Amino acid sequence: MRIDSRKKIRHVSGENIILMQADGMADMTQVVAFNESALELYNQLNGREFGDEDVVRAITDTYGVDEATARADAAAWVKSMREQKLILD
Amino acid sequence: MGTATLGIGGITLTLDGDTSLARALALPGMREFMAVGTEADCIEVRLDRPLALPPYRWLHRFDIADGTAECRFGIDAEGVYHFTFGDSGLLQFDPRQPDTVCLNTIDDPNLLRFAMWTAYAMAGLWRGAVPVHASAVVWRGQAVLCLGESGTGKSTHTHLWTTHFDGAWLLNDDSPIVRLREGRVWAYGSPWSGKSPCFHREGVPVAALIRLEQRPANSIRRLGTIEAFTALHPSCPPALAHDERCTDLMVDFVGGVIGNVPLFRLGCRPDREAAELSRNTIFPET
User: Fold this and answer.
1) Of B40, B100, B143, B181, which has the fewest CB atoms closer than 10 Å, so is most exposed?
2) What's the pLDDT tens digit per position in B5-14?
3) Which of B150, B244, B251 sits opposite A12 (nearest CB)?
4) Which of A12, A21, A33 is the closest to B255 by Cβ?
5) Any CB–CB contact under 8 A between A85 and chain B?
6) Sign of the C-alpha dihedral, residues B189, B191, B196, B199?
7) What is the pLDDT of residues B248-257, one digit of tens each?
């Protein structure tokens, strides 16, 4: 999988967001907001192909958590990124 | 060829052209903005230019508000932006020369009015001056901008202020110019004021913005950064959100505004109580 690099992280008053283009919705802006750890994963994995194990490793290397916790967090991050169509297969 | 100078949103617009110039100055509100002096910021609006549309990448198409003409927005290989208005109207803006906007001859007054607004939106964005879709009311020297989709009751709400609160007056009813200047957010009147003939040149510091929603009961709450962003961003010129570079500038602008003034979400009925709720929240000393 790969992060969709066409969608750019923007910084607004201390928040990190991606604007989602809502075609056909005349008066609506949708954003995806990243917390600190979601942003860290985004930055580490952006620009390259990666698999589930790479996400787990990024979490254990960065935060020093046990593998079970890292797997759960990695699955949640990938699921959330897929739901927002920010990951391309 | 003739020339005219307008002062809009703290920016001097120098218009030069032939038949379009006379038509532009005959548009409602334009003469009220004719300027004598010049501001530090200047934009040249060159009308009646023999423009040609090169191959360009189409970014967005839309109908102007009254549905009478299709408009397109795109960018060419040189990074020059192109707007088309109806069958023959053209606008070009080259960000490498952000002090100049060129238009061809546009006969239809409605299209010319929209093209002039677009010219301002495009060149204004490069200097942080953005026409925001809002109804703006002034009270005790500060402006409150009501945001919302068409038909939400923005004008109704500001009308409630001017009806019930002594000294409240309407700055603009459709497209005030909003700017950040020296750490403060300012709203200016403009020649684009919807159906209200409300043409004020003044600039007024902004106290707050309110996103309106029709509700069976009145309620108000202040929005956090992300909600405030999603409340203001769609009220900025929507076509420009389809381009990356324009979006960068727009995000900076919206971030600057919401970082300096509060933005509230008001669920409201069209009644005096709603106006009192918003006024008393924004100006708690009243």
Assistant:
1) B40
2) 999 999 999 9
3) B251
4) A12
5) no
6) positive
7) 999 999 999 9
Closest-CA residue of A relative to B258 is A13
Domain ranges for chain B, please list them.
2-127, 131-282
Kindly report the average pLDDT of chain B as a whole number.
94
Distance from CA of B213 to the nearest CA of A (A): 13
CA distances from B190 to A53, B64, B85, B96 (A): 57, 19, 21, 26
What six digits make up the tokens of B91? Answer: 């606008």
Please give the C-alpha separations between residue B33 and each of B144, B192, B204, in angstroms, as whole numbers: 22, 11, 16
CA B249 to centroid of chain Cα atoms: 15
Secondary structure class of B78 (helix, strand, coil): coil
Mutate: best of B229, B246, B258, partner A, most A CBs <10 A? B229
**Closest chain A CA to residue B248:** A10
To which H or E segment does residue B245 belong? helix B244-258
Region of B148 please: left (phi>0), alpha (psi -120 to 50) or beta.
left
CATH code for the part of the protein at B131-282 = 3.90.228.20
* Domains of chain A as residue ranges with CATH: 2-88 (1.10.10)
Tokens 């020339």 locate to B3
Model ipTM? 0.84
The tokens describing B245, both together, are: 């570079």
CA A7/CA A18 separation, integer angstroms:
7
Do the Cβ atoms of A15 and B247 come within 8 Å? no
Q: From CA B162, how far away is CA B170, in angstroms rounded?
A: 7
Residue among B60, B233, B260 with most chain A CBs within 10 A, to mutate: B233
Classify residue B113 by burial, with Cβ atoms within 10 Å: 0-12, 13-18, 19+. buried
Tell me which of B35-49, B66-80, B178-192 is least confident: B35-49
User: How high is the pLDDT of residue B65?
Assistant: 64
